[in-house]
Amino acid sequence: MTTNTLLLLLLSLLIAGGLSFFQYIYKAKNKSKVGWFLAFLRFLSIFGILMLLINPILTKNTFETVKTPLPIVVDNSSSISFLNANEKALELYKRIQLNSDLKDKFDVQTYQFSDDFEPTEIFNFKGTQTNIDVVAKNLKSIYKNTVYPTVLITDGNQTSGNDYVYSFDPLNKVYPVILGDTTKLFDLKINQLNVNKYAFHKNKFPVEVFLQYSGTKSVTADFVISQGNSVFSTQSITLSPSKKTATVPVLLPADKIGLQVFKVTISSKEKEKNTYNNTKNFAVEVIDQKTNIAIISAINHPDLGAMKRAIESNVQRKVIIVKPNEIKTLQDYNVLILYQPTIEFKTIFESNKVAGINTFIITGNNTDFNFLNQQQENLSFKMSGQKEEYLSVFNKQFNLFAADNIGFEDLPPLQNAFGTVTTKGVVSVLLSSKIRTIDTNAPLLVFAENQGRRATYLLGENSWKWRLQTHVNNQSFEKYDVFMDKIIQFLASNNSKKSLVVEHESFYNSGEAIEITAQYFNKNYEFDEKARLTITVKNTETKQTKNYDLLKGNNSYKVNLDGLKAGSHTFTVKELNSKTTYSSSFEILDFDIEKQFVNPDVEKLTQLAGQTQGKAYFSDQVDVLIKTLLENEEYKTIQKSSVTKTPLINWMWLLVLISILLTTEWFVRKHNGLL
């Protein structure tokens, strides 16, 4: 409180006292106790009013004791139960969490994780995935700019997420408590299996199986790949302490069309504690036909190679690059990509009027636009000889198919002739163009469908830069390749647009997310945001049926079918208003990734502790861990002081008090006949 404020308050006391004395004591004829009481009431009310006018600032100091947080994070995945370490995990958790000395020094907080991370004090060890990386990310977010230790109770066997060793903040110590038996047991394991999802009928498809061995002596194992009662491959594999891994490549025949489920088995005469990881199922969908695409170009350009690689990332696609005068019969192809057409393409266009093959026309600096105006009826070109660079703008209202914005606005510009492009008839624009910061509202990527024939137009060259930039942004070509695959999928089909489109996989691994997406279009082929979609799923073996609602997302409806058992399932998606239905099936392969381990990953957890300057402890060393935490001088309780400044005018009770004083004074004067 300032000196001026103190002087004003002192002056207020004098004024309030003087006025009260003058009215009730000095002027009074009879100096009674009532007069003194009324003078006191008047003094308080006048002084209170003057204090409100002065409005002094009241300062209050408060002190708060802040302890260092100590997160105790427990692995809640089913692998802990499978290793018979769930009771030990609960015992260790309680010993640390209930330790009174730790509570005095730290703010003990408890969490659990499996595929996700959440605060809890209850654990059931039923998580279907182990993601230790998610622990690191959440702790960084919760305890930002804080120095703290972490106790991580886990077996260290991660089944999803990024490598956790380097995910944790290196400035905050991590103390892993290792669960499970560390004794090296005899174990044969199918560690990994690589196989494409699709194979082509009457071809052979490769399967690559990675085997892992743990033991103290050499062993000969039997490796078998079978389907039902049929055995497709059998081999003898020798493993030893010096040869702990083996890779087995196999070529299997794709003799049957449709979803084919196979089983890989590795076994020996030795007794194993864990035989669950000796078997692994996998599935391949055998397709009876490829989609053949011809990229026709009279010039050489980097776009050609980039398109070929992007399209062939889907194994169902086969691409050839030919010149206009080299192509013989158009009927050999499902899609024609006409790159920068000129008069040399005249024979191609004339032949295609009869063949009726869907086309993907790409223009650029070498395109003959007068010729192109004569050969198609979807776009009209009035172009100059000047070159221009066009940036892209994504159209969120596009609804021919589910197209994702892969960051088109940030991709390099395409180069095309400067001029005016107008649409004719019914076309759908996925990308429009802009020159630098000016929107031209002209199309850049266009889709058209007339009388069952489909066409796509990309108005600009150098799309190879798009593929390269998406790899820079995402460390993968996948987003661009999927985008290109959707264009080819649109062109490869001549079927009329369905009102209900459902996307799903033919098979899923047990424990992974089973997501089915659907789109429903009204009669104008516009995405219907008011559709009511449900799905009925039936297990073909048990006949058990479950019903779910699909929830609306961004231009699609989605459902996550968690909790389904392994086996074959049929399902029906139904739109309740129009009664439109879609039926199909999928297979859930029996594979529990949490049952693949026989020992904790001591090496990884020790590496994590070293990376963060902490230390790894085994389950019988928890007392040493508690002692280490208590004796560590880095973590001290901090006392914080906070200053609160409150203006007196904010005190509502002072106004109430002044009102009571004035009211009391009035009643006393009334009662004593002084009014």
**How many strand units?**
34
Radius of gyration over C-alpha positions, nearest whole angstrom: 38 Å
Q: Report the oligomer.
A: single chain
| Class derived from helix and strand content | alpha/beta
Shape: extended
Kindly report how far apart the N and C termini lie: 40 Å
Helix content: 25-40%
> Mean of residue pLDDT?
87
How would you explain this protein's 3D organization?
The structure is a single chain. By secondary structure, this protein is α/β, with parallel strands linked by helices. It has a nine-stranded mixed sheet, with helices on one face. A six-stranded mixed sheet has the order 4-3-2-5-6-33, sandwiched between helices. Helix 1 (about 5-25) runs antiparallel to helix 2, helix 7 (about 300-310) crosses helix 11 (about 480-490) and helix 10 packs across helix 11. The longest helix has 24 residues, at about 5-25.
